[in-house]
Amino acid sequence: MNKQKLESYCLNLPGSVHDYQTDWEADRYQVGGKIFAMIGCDPAGKSILTVKCDPHRSEELRENYTGVIPGYYMNKSHWISIYFDANIPDEIWEKLIFHSYELVFQKLPKKIQKQVKP
């Protein structure tokens, strides 16, 4: 997967906003002020995407794909990180980003949800 494709997918989700966190050296994608995806690097400089994920689903993904690890710099049970060079079909990348977006969106106050998706 490449960064431009991931960025484009993230930014096309309703209400998605991008910023760059200098301290983390990471691109962050948020909805309603809450992060749903982050693109950065591990300590070795390998590019990773970090997304929120249902704990049971994240366990299954880690078992099936070697490029999926517990969320780097995040809560290890609710976030996963995926190496860009992981052998994962594009459709799964997109489903994981959308799953993360939906998990975050559902936790937003109703008022903000209505502003994002009228």
Give a written overview of the molecule.
The chain has 118 residues and is of the alpha+beta class. It has one domain (3-110): Alpha-Beta Complex (Aspartate Aminotransferase, domain 1). 37% of the residues lie in helices and 28% in strands. The protein contains 4 helices and 6 strands. The chain has helices at residues 3-11, 55-64, 90-107, 110-116, and strands at residues 17-21, 26-31, 34-41, 47-52, 68-70, 79-83. Strands 1-2-3-4-6-5 form a 6-stranded antiparallel sheet. Strand 3 (34-41) and strand 4 (47-52) form a beta hairpin.
SSE layout:
Elements: H1 3-11, E1 17-21, E2 26-31, E3 34-41, E4 47-52, H2 55-64, E5 68-70, E6 79-83, H3 90-107, H4 110-116
